[in-house]
Write a structure and sequence with these properties.
There is one protein chain. The protein is built from 2 helices and 19 strands. The protein is mainly β. The chain is globular and about 60 Å long. It folds into 2 domains: 17-172, Immunoglobulin-like (Sandwich), CATH 2.60.40; 175-270, Immunoglobulin-like, CATH 2.60.40. The longest helix is centred in the first third of the chain and has 13 residues, at 2-14.
Amino acid sequence: MVLFLALGLASALSLPGPAHAFEGQWVDLPNARARLLASGDPMSGRILAGLEIELDDDWKTYWRFPGDSGIPPTFDWSGAQNVAATHLLFPAPERFSDEYGQSVGYKHRVVFPIEIELEGAGRPTHLKLDIVLGICRDVCIPVMEQFSLKLPPVFMATEAAKTVLIAASNSVPTQTIEAQRPVIEIEERAGKTPMLTISVPSDLQITDVFVEGPDTWFLTLPEKVSEDDADAVQTWQLALDGTPVGTTPWGAAMRLTMVGPDKSFEQDFTLIEPE
């Protein structure tokens, strides 16, 4: 009897532990699948979660600013337990062009990192997420789905989950430092909306640029107009069409995202009226 008990205990210890629960089950979506992941030390009061989405070939989903068309993702954590605050991060996106215009988002696979502040360390946590997102090819399918992941007060994430979340965090644009900042100029034009010109240092190796304004604005996407090797800059321009009629753009809070093959950058700026 003692031998059987010992063998049973040894077998139990050799089985995969509860850490494997922290790579959530895949949930099938139209032309995609998705799951929640978690990593970190709950005793610190903070963890890192992620929503991983794998898309079928030729299908895409959208960035927070979807471009000319599309559905930006929304994340609702109101049903979660032991969650005080969440901060959703967006990996650097791509630009897509088709007969409907230009859109911004992701193909094949994307992982959205989510920084989570817990209400209390040393307590079980229930990550419960309701999402709305668009999954599109020739047509756009609005998707509503719920994800759930229960975490004990102490856990050890799988190496696979940690690897995925570290890579996702590294794909998020970083804030520019002073030496990297582009020159942003605005020109008023008679009878037209102002023109924004962005001169990006060439050594940043930027392949695309996106500009976001207030939620009520419907901006298009910047276009690259020149690359001057002598001045070591590339120039992008954006006409501020899509601003609400009868309002002034001056003083608006803006965000510039510069995407490169290896590293991407973000910078906040304010539209200042030319003197």
